[in-house]
Structures are given as C-alpha cells and as structure tokens.
Amino acid sequence: MAGDALLDYLVVGAGPAGLQAGYFLERAGRNYLVVEAGEAPGTFFTRYPRHRTMISNNKVHTGWDDPELNLRTDWNSLLSEENRPLFTAVTPRYFPPADDFVGYLADFAATHRLRIHYRTRITRISRPAEGGEFVAEAEDGSVLRARRVIMASGVTRPYIPPIEGVELAESYTEVSVDPADFTDLRVLVIGRGNSAFETADNLIETAAVIHMVGPGSLRLAWQTHFVGHLRAVNNNFLDTYQLKSQNALLDGEVLSIRRPDPDGRYLVAVKFARVAEVVKEIPYDRVILATGFRFDASLFDEECRPELTIKDRFPAQTDSWESVNVPDLFFAGTITQARDFKKSTSGFIHGFRYAVRALHRIMEQRYEEVAWPRRELPVTAEAVADAVLERVNRTSALWQMFGFMSDAVLLPAPAAADGPAGAGAAYLEELPLDHLHRSVADGVFGPVDRYLTVTLEYGADHDKVNPFDISVDRRAQTDTGGLDSRYLHPVIRLWQDGKCAAEHHITENLENEWDSEEVHRAPLVRFLSGQGLGRPAVASPS
After folding, report:
1. How many CB atoms are closer than 10 A to CB 255?
2. What architecture is domain 166-289?
3. Domain extent listing, the chain
4. Which one in 102, 301, 388, 401 has a CA-CA gap of 20 to 30 Å to 138?
5. What's the pLDDT tens digit per position in 322-372?
C-alpha cells in the first residue's frame, strides 16, 4: 500500500460505522480510504455477541411501504440514497443471527464499491506537526497520511473495573459458552448489562447457583427506553431469581476476588448496598467478568492522543464528534455514545447511522464549503406546522435518536402586525441538538433571529414511572399542549438569544400518528401563531 498520496479522510475500521462513513464519502466523491484489520467488514461481529444472537430489532413486516418509516423498526440496515441493500431482506428473524449481519456488511460494501483496504491493522497514529497531517502506520509496515481521521474502530478492549484480584476472573471475551462446562457449579457473573444477562441465561439449565452482581438499581429497557439497559429477551434470569430457583441478583460492589486454594473455590467479597451487613465473602466455582468494553487509545502518539471520559472508556468529544483536544480527529459508531451516555441511541447501529450522516454534513460544511441541506418555507403558522407534522410522522432519525437529534426551522425577525407573511423560513433536518445551538450562536447558518427545534422525546421522569400503569386525561393533555405525555411525542421549542422562549408538546398517540386536526395540528398552529409566525388561516372542520 503506497503511502505517498495524501488522503483527505482516513476511516479506521470497516464495521457498520466505518462503512456508513465510507458510503457518504464515496457518494460525495471525496478523497478517502477505509482501513480494516480483518479480512472482511464487521470483524467484531464474527465473535460478538458470544452467543451469536443480536438483540437489535429486525422487523420485516410493518404494513408500511415507506422506506423511511420502515427504518423505525429496522435497527440493522445502513443508510443509503438507493435504499439498498437492506438487512430486512437477509433474514426474517426478529433477533437475527450475528453471522447474517456479517454477510450483510460485506454486501453493503460491495454494492456501493467502497474503497477499503483489508488486513490493514493500524498500530500507530502520530501527528508530527501541530495542526498538520496525521501519519498512520500499519502492522505490515505500510504508512498512510491524512488530513483528517475518523475513528470507527469501536470498543475493542474489555473494561476491567478496579477490583482486587480481578485477574482471577474469566473474561466474557474468552469464557466457554458451552453450558455443560458449568454443570452443578456455583457461578458469579460480575456485571448487569445485556452481555452479563446473556451469559447467565445461557447457564440456567446447568449451573447449580448463579449470582449476578453490580452497583445501583437494575435498569430495564422497557421502562427507561434506553436499549442498552436490560432487554426483555435477556431477562429470563429475573424469573429464576424472583421465583426462588437458587439464582440471585446481588445489589452491591465487588471488593475483592481471592482463591486461597489454587484447586478450590473462589471467595468473592461483596459490599451490599441495601442490607445492614457491610461485606460478605461468598464462595464460587467460576467467576465471570462481563463489564463491557472500552476504546483503545494506546495506538496514538502522545501529541495526538485523544482525551478519554466516562471511566476512560470513550474518547471525549465535542458536539461535532471531534476530539476535544485533537483537531481534525473525529469519531463514529458506538464510541460516540459518550455524547448521550445511557440516554439515547448513539451506541447502537440504529442510532449512530444517523450520527454518521450528520458528521458527514458537518465535515462537508467545514472542509468542503457545502451548506447543510435546507428547504424554504413561508413564514406562516400553518406552513411551518404542516412541515413539522409531515416530518414527525415519517422521520426515522428523530425517532431513533430521541432527544438528541433535532430538525430546525430558522426564522427571520417577526413581521409587523400589519405586514405580509411571506417566504423566509428555512427547514434543516437532523442536526445534533447541541451542535445546532452552537452553530446558530457562531453564525454558521448566517444571521438567525429566532429558530424552532423539533425533537421526539419521552415525557419528564418517564424512566421513573411504571409505563404499564399510567392514567391519561386526554382533555387536559390537549389543553396543555401535550405537556403531560409520557410516551414518545413531538416537542417544538422556540429559541432566541440562546434561551428557550416557548415550548409546545404534541399529544402522544398510540400509533405514533400525529395527524388529527383537532388534537395535533390546530394546537400547534395556535402555538406558532402566538410566537408571531404570520396569521393562521381559519381551520376547516375536521
């Protein structure tokens, strides 16, 4: 591989994020290259999840013929203007086999003729001159130079918590997945994420006793709406605990692991959080560490090594997914979850595919002088309301990246009371909310007097209530603009001088169809009219 040519964009990693970045760069005709350590795309998924079933939804039959709507329930397909290939054509399984996803990624790369060099493991990245080009050295001795680097390498190293004797535990990455190896044994699983529960569920039929341990309260995805919390498909273990089948969920912190007799049991000291005893030492035959993964920053030289955050598990990033301390170093994929950690979906394919598209637009705007796509709207309450409702009834990006990704309506100064309403508003789609606010403040979109944000959000404290036991007063919701909605619903806010000046919630709907004149459109038109967006026309009877 020649190292003489200077790339504009070097993408490290050909997993789903790297392929998604490569697609947009290829389509824009940019000077780029994707490098991958493995022999094909998606090497990570050839090994993980260990039990070979993904928990990312693959709903093939939706009753919709709108490709945009279908992406709401297709959590694995990558984005493309051609709308192909789609993972839903690969398998009908709702929780698909990981091997099918590996094949899909190879098909995507081939279909779009992405420029990828395989068997190219990057071992060192340096930046000899401050603000200059990056130099990436590969294991085979080849060298690449690039003006910008997009790290799409994922989280490649296990996260090891600071536990005395933790080296005695078996790692999730290496432990046997054959349940017969645990027959009649006492097993401790450290960790309470989906990989930990996946591991425990696999042993229910053979292990004598299974304990799981971790600090804090167990968070359930169906309540928090964060898909990284415990999914229902992995929660059979909870039944075995609450129905007294010898298994248990321990709420506490592991202080130490020791094995006094090399051929004997492990003794694990657990500091319980909800009982009077301070520490209890409990015997186990096997101890498994399933505490997640982290980003590997060791391949960066000191002068361009990105700062880390969240227990040093992820690179610290700006609202543009750029390193906070290394300009022109960007991140894509699951490592971008540092921006919305355990709140939205940046850590998952169905979230970060939209983030990669937004990152591409950010780089196009900054480096290639290509403006963010926009369309013009008349500055009337009805025109803006119709544009907003059209989007919230179709968008998959705002749906998947709830509370994080936003549409924006850039508004001119209010017209005089007797002045005409005309063109002048600009509708922009799919901006990270924090990036939008900063861009407006910095004048990136030109002079903006006021602007609206359009997001899909769950109600306040939605993760603290039982979603199966909520009473709703529909009349009160309509009167308050849907403010009491707990389920996912559209929220429109007016911003001026960096502050939220007004806010409107569109009432939630069981089918997520916000198309009622009386319940959805008319209240939104009244809200927008009250903010000076022209004079609303008289609504026809619904």
Report:
1. 15
2. 3-Layer(bba) Sandwich (3.50)
3. 6-157+293-367, 166-289, 374-530
4. 102
5. 999 999 999 999 999 999 999 999 999 999 999 999 999 999 999 999 999
